[in-house]
Amino acid sequence: MVYRPPVKKSDFDGPSGLAKVVLNGNKTKAKVVFIENNEEYVISVKNCPDDVQKYIRSGEFIAKMNKDGDKLYSMSPANGMFEGKVAKFSSKKDQPPAPMTKIGADWSYLYFVVMIGITKGECQGMQLPCFLRYNFCEELQDVKGTTKSVVGYSKNLDKSKHTAFLDEFLTITGVWDFGPIAYTDNILPKLEQRTKRADKSFSFIVKKGFIDTFYQQSSLPIETKLPDEPEFADGVQFDDEDLTDDPLEEKFE
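Predicted structure:
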């Protein structure tokens, strides 16, 4: 057998999965018992990240620990319906978000991860990753009488459940409220800018630790929620996106 050198493990490569979390009486320590293998860890709450210290509680959650099993990095609900907002697009440190590649034996696809923060209820402050396929392509579209290169979906919504879920996410978070997006090789920074600008709250269902479905908090159809008049004053820009004339249209250079 050919020798292979050891691979350095990240501090984040620790125990993870569905676990029962039990706080002691003064909430200074917590016992984390992973249900699949019954592995048990006892941690000091003060050693956890600040946000975890704020929301840690007893119950069954998806828990993630460090490799030494003495620090709880995050916990999120395994099931239920919650209210939240986009917290951030995942990316490497000090770099803009970019699509990643998942490779199998005879397949591969591009994807990206968005962190959804819970904004109300007992789980407020917790975040869940939302895994989305990067199913985008370049399409030509008429914009004010001129043919422009815009972002389109690379697969049919009726035939691709992953693309339908992607469209559901982009619609519910307000990305398409501002009209077409000029095509580039990486549109994730633009998507993140738009979700921040829209700043929409929404409801979502979690099943087995993963976000399954998004819901608008209003019963109104999505198209009725667009503003009737431009809401931005003259000269307003959002990052490199000019929204002066009409918040539902992006200007193409």
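Summary: Residues 219-239, 243-253 have pLDDT under 50 and may be disordered.
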